[in-house]
Amino acid sequence: MYKKLFHLVLFILISVSVRAQAAVILQYHHVSETLPAVTSVSANTFTKHLSYLKEHDFKVIALNELISALEQSETLPDKTVAITFDDGYNNNYEQAAPILEKFGYPYTIFVNPKLIDEGMSYVMGWDKLKELAKKGALIANHSGQHDYLHRKLENETNAQWRSRIKKDILDSQKRIKEETGQDYKYLAYPYGEFNNELQALVTELGFIGIGQHSGAVNKDSNFSRLPRFPASGFYSKLETLITKLNSRAFNITKLTYKDSVTEQNPPMLTVTFNMGDFHKSQFACYVSSVGQADLNWISESTVEITSPKVLNKGRSRFNCTAPSISNPGSYFWFSQPWVIENAKP
């Protein structure tokens, strides 16, 4: 009897701890039927996404509220979601904003101030962004002109790179504050690419770094590389998005790898978990365009993850999941992004 009671109490504690600070951030680009499908979602599909959130009692909150709660280890409601857009396209104003207003959902738009100042026709001007900001939208930093921030210019020293990127980030932040009055220190990495040096610089500047690799977030997430679930193009299918919306963040105590932008090929990742709510035997990882990853559990809580094949040059990803014990039908989800700089082992 006492053994059963112990397990019941343990189950309740696990359930509460898993729910306490878990959340999902969604990433969109275009809401359009005429622009590239890979980064677009139709207005009809976007409405279906928001309808699902409404009908299933998801708590859609502003990104600053979500991040503040995680930083302070505050309890978030179960099924918490934040909605974000990258690049500030005109269709965000014309298509997305009116739909979001109907649902009463807050959202964030990451913009490139230099492109706005240059009058690029495909992005919103400051007038539209100020209008949306007055209605409650958060306007945040996506770098000056959407460059690959981790890349050094030819013959550029590390000190010169740091100075250039620091100026880019701070100048962009200054323009956003001047035009909208907002000063949220969130940087969405262009193309979702970052390396160790860029993460360190972003943290040094007091910013939160946000990627576009998939996964849920919690208080133990690395705030220089918060994940988001892409919800456009191939990833806009509601049946698969539902699983992601109900996902949870692994409690990771240590993450070890050389660098996410790397010449190590195949790359290797070592993860140490705070175990408790998933079975080790059900943990699985998949490699983009390759298939199942090789797993080597070197202890009860630490696993080495490698690709069975050399990866192609460019962006790739390890996606790792495990079903939750305390919340049947819900999966823990973690993603490790890679930028492979060569295709040789």
Automatic annotation (TrEMBL):
Residue ranges of domain NodB homology in the record: 79-345
Species name: Pseudoalteromonas carrageenovora IAM 12662
UniProt KW Signal keyword: yes
UniProt keyword annotation of Signal present: yes
UniProt keyword list: Signal
PANTHER family xrefs: POLY-BETA-1,6-N-ACETYL-D-GLUCOSAMINE N-DEACETYLASE, PTHR34216
Protein's name in the database: NodB homology domain-containing protein
Position of the signal peptide: 1-22
Location of the protein in the cell: Secreted
